[in-house]
């Protein structure tokens, strides 16, 4: 793989994906401080919150306060989830300038997560896309369960490609491929990305892998060999989807940064500052730090 010198775009999803499944209510000030610390560490795409129904995901109920309080920083973007027009309008009113819709390659997961089947969900995104286009707001599209579903098991690459192609045709500038429950392995991840890249240009694909079975870095390396250059990750490996039983954390941002720096790829991220943030947020959440790199590089007082 001829990677040295090439660049990788990191999308930090900790404040949204990382926190959405936390059982206790996290103070808004802690969430804001997390976002600021991540930006201080050099991350430039930070998924800040989700404009979803607070009945479905109570942890994201302070989405408006988060977006309103975030001071713009040159070069830093704060995308948010918006599953419908209500979410989009609220997000835009609070200052969001990048949004994401989220679909799934599994019919059962789609129903559990957003209360409708795949085709219905895509129909529901159409007015979101139309309104976002009118407002000149770029929309990212997620596809969940690309390497397995907690309800249906195996998901064929064909099913992933179908949803990815639809989202792309609707105008999503990027399609993020989620291994929601982290069951993927490298060759499986390759086969899935190869199939999706037949219908969406590789440059518009992102890998969003969870690390439930410890495969995420290997899977990322495998799909980077194919040309993936956008990687989603969550500080301290926090994360999990409330509607995906058994889903554990996303791949830890510091593990990804360590791997990329070791490959000669500059990320613009200050690894020491990121590790410090990982320890800080775990302290706030009252949980141990799970990521290998954050444990290995623990500050003396952690
Ligand atoms: C999509 C809905 C809203 C459908 O939920 P629904 O119940 O079918 O929707 P509804 O239109 O019937 O609305 C029900 C209530 O929610 C309100 N509502 C409706 N929309 C909104 C909104 N945007 N913001 C705030 N409130 C909203 C609406 O006003 C109403 O309130 P009520 O009249 O009962 O008081 C719901 O299922 C939902 O919010 N789901 C979100 C689930 C979620 O956030 N999951 C986690 C994110 S996805 C993920 O983690 C995977 C990913 C992206 O990371 C990739 C991967 O790893 O695979």
From TrEMBL:
Catalytic activity: (3S)-3-hydroxy-3-methylglutaryl-CoA = acetoacetate + acetyl-CoA
One Gene Ontology term of the molecular function aspect: hydroxymethylglutaryl-CoA lyase activity
Lineage: superkingdom: Bacteria
Segments forming domain Pyruvate carboxyltransferase: 8-275
Gene source species: Ectothiorhodospira magna
Enzyme class, spelled out: lyase
Pfam families xref list: HMGL-like (PF00682)
Protein name: hydroxymethylglutaryl-CoA lyase
Annotated keywords: Lyase, Metal-binding
GO BP field: ketone body biosynthetic process; L-leucine catabolic process
Record's keyword annotation contains Metal-binding: yes
InterPro entries, alphabetized: Aldolase_TIM, HMG_CoA_lyase_AS, HMGL, PYR_CT
Family to which this protein belongs: Belongs to the HMG-CoA lyase family.
Its EC number(s): 4.1.3.4
UniProt keyword Transmembrane helix, yes or no: no
Annotated pathway: Metabolic intermediate metabolism; (S)-3-hydroxy-3-methylglutaryl-CoA degradation; acetoacetate from (S)-3-hydroxy-3-methylglutaryl-CoA: step 1/1
């Amino acid at each position: 793989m001829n990677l040295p010198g090439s660049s990788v775009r990191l999308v930090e999803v900790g404040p949204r994906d990382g926190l959405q499944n936390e059982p206790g209510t996290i103070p808004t000030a802690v969430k804001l401080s997390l976002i600021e610390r991540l930006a201080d560490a050099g991350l430039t795409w930070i998924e800040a919150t989700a404009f979803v129904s607070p009945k479905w995901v109570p942890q994201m109920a302070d989405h408006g306060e988060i977006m309103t309080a975030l001071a713009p920083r040159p070069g830093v973007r704060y995308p948010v989830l918006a599953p419908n027009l209500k979410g989009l309008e609220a997000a835009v009113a609070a200052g969001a300038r990048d949004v994401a819709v989220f679909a799934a390659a599994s019919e059962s997961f789609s129903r559990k997560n957003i209360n409708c089947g795949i085709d219905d969900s895509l129909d529901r995104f159409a007015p979101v896309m139309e309104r976002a286009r009118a407002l000149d707001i770029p929309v990212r599209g997620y596809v969940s369960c690309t390497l397995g579903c907690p309800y249906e098991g195996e998901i064929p690459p064909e099913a992933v490609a179908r949803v990815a192609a639809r989202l792309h045709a609707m105008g999503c500038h990027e399609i993020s491929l989620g291994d929601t429950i982290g069951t993927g392995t490298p060759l499986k991840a390759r086969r899935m990305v190869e199939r999706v890249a037949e219908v969406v240009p590789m440059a518009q694909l992102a890998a969003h892998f969870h690390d439930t079975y410890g495969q995420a870095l290997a899977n990322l390396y495998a799909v980077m060999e194919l040309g993936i250059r956008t990687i989603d990750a969550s500080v301290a490996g926090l994360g999990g989807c409330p509607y995906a039983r058994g889903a554990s954390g996303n791949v830890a941002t510091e593990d990804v940064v360590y791997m990329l720096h070791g490959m000669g790829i500059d990320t613009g991220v200050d690894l020491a500052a990121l590790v410090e943030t990982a320890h800080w947020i775990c302290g706030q959440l009252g949980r141990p730090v799970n990521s290998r790199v954050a444990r290995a590089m623990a500050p003396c007082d952690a």
